[in-house]
């Protein structure tokens, strides 16, 4: 039985609402049937259908279809959820920008209340969460990206590249409880925006509209960069997402933040002397310091010869060796404003990977205010 046979009936039954015509919603259903839906009940028009586990309870015919093809119902539920989001956009039935600013402000509190964690800030790990939730996108298949927040599920949560991100997800869970209406994909990417901006970085244009997906949509391992590899590997990973050499280098500058941990990646140490502040020091240090291979039992990495306290990964050092990468890395080392501009654009693009344009609540991304800007006002 083809999925197209279910589209019109499901749309008609599930989205009967006085504010949006059935015809318009049916068209949106067809246009935005893109992937997995939330496991939460979807309510509309005084009716409720349970989507979790692939079940849409709407009568004997529905039960028969589910019992013969449960995967089909997961697909239908996902399309329904995506259409709900599209319908919200069409009818402006969405939280306002001010509501997302409140979520941003809550995240600011968490970033500042890190205590003894790492260098006293949760900012870097929140950036990493947003990055890894988005960087799984495959432009050829249209899978992955931030739309479905599938790192909530195993096995994706336990992929090697995601080691330690349970800390960031747990932090965000507290925000989710206070603002249950926000999707995980929106929450995680907003956390990355907040962290970058509050750590003296550039403004990151952002807009909501992501929906939550099923465990069956978790992406396969191997889609995120392997820090032990070289230029060919970087291009393979980033070209798959749709980025070019300049954007690869610009995004690599996020290593100005945070540090590696032996119990997570196996590598050890910070990239810069100010790992909780967004600067172009990462690029400056690449060219200004002398880097030598670290003598230890861990994976291959470099340390600065002068102090031995900083480190660079093989994928970092290749930016000084590859002719194309080096050109951009040197430009960013010489001009922080240039890097801020290119980094902002690349990160905004990264965080939107995998999200159908029609799901966004705004045609243009927003610029959310920092804590300092709000206090000044």
Automatic annotation (TrEMBL):
GO molecular function: cytochrome-c peroxidase activity; heme binding; metal ion binding
Name of the protein described by the UniProt record: Peroxidase
Functional description taken from the UniProt entry: Destroys radicals which are normally produced within the cells and which are toxic to biological systems.
SUPFAM superfamilies: Heme-dependent peroxidases (SSF48113)
Gene3D superfamilies documented for this protein: 1.10.520.10, Peroxidase, domain 2 (1.10.420.10)
Family: Belongs to the peroxidase family. Cytochrome c peroxidase subfamily.
Cellular component terms per the entry's GO annotation: mitochondrial intermembrane space; mitochondrial matrix
Subcellular locations according to the entry: Mitochondrion intermembrane space; Mitochondrion matrix
């Amino acid at each position: 039985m083809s999925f197209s046979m279910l589209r019109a009936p499901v749309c008609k039954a599930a989205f009967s609402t006085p504010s949006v015509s059935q015809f318009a919603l049916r068209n949106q259903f067809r246009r935005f049937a893109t992937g997995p839906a939330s496991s939460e009940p979807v309510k509309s028009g005084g009716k409720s259908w349970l989507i979790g586990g692939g079940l849409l309870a709407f009568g004997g015919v529905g039960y028969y279809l589910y019992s013969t093809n449960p995967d089909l119902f997961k697909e239908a539920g996902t399309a329904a959820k995506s259409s709900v989001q599209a319908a919200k956009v069409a009818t402006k039935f969405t939280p306002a920008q001010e509501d997302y600013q409140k979520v941003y402000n809550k995240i600011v509190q968490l970033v500042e209340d890190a205590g003894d964690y790492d260098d006293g800030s949760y900012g870097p790990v929140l950036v990493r969460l947003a990055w890894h939730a988005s960087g799984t996108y495959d432009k050829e298949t249209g899978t992955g990206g931030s739309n479905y927040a599938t790192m909530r599920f195993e096995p994706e949560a336990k992929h090697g590249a995601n080691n330690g991100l349970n800390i960031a997800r747990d932090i965000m869970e507290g925000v989710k409880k206070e603002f249950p209406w926000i999707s995980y994909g929106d929450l995680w990417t907003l956390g990355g925006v907040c962290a970058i901006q509050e750590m003296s970085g550039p403004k990151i244009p952002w807009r909501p509209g992501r929906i939550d997906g099923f465990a069956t949509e978790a992406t396969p391992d191997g889609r995120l960069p392997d820090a032990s590899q070289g230029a060919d590997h970087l291009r393979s990973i980033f070209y798959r997402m749709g980025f070019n050499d300049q954007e690869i280098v610009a995004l690599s500058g996020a290593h100005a933040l945070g540090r590696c941990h032996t119990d997570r990646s196996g590598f050890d140490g910070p990239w810069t002397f100010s790992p909780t502040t967004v600067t172009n020091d990462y690029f400056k240090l690449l060219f200004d310091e002398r880097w030598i291979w670290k003598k230890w039992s861990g994976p291959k990495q470099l340390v600065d010869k002068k102090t031995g306290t900083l480190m660079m990964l093989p994928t970092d050092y290749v930016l000084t060796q590859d002719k194309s990468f080096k050109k951009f890395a040197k430009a960013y080392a010489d001009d922080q404003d240039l890097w801020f501009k290119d980094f902002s654009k690349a990160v905004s693009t990264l965080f939107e990977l995998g999200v159908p344009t029609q799901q966004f609540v705004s045609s243009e991304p927003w610029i959310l205010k920092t804590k300092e800007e709000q206090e000044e006002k």
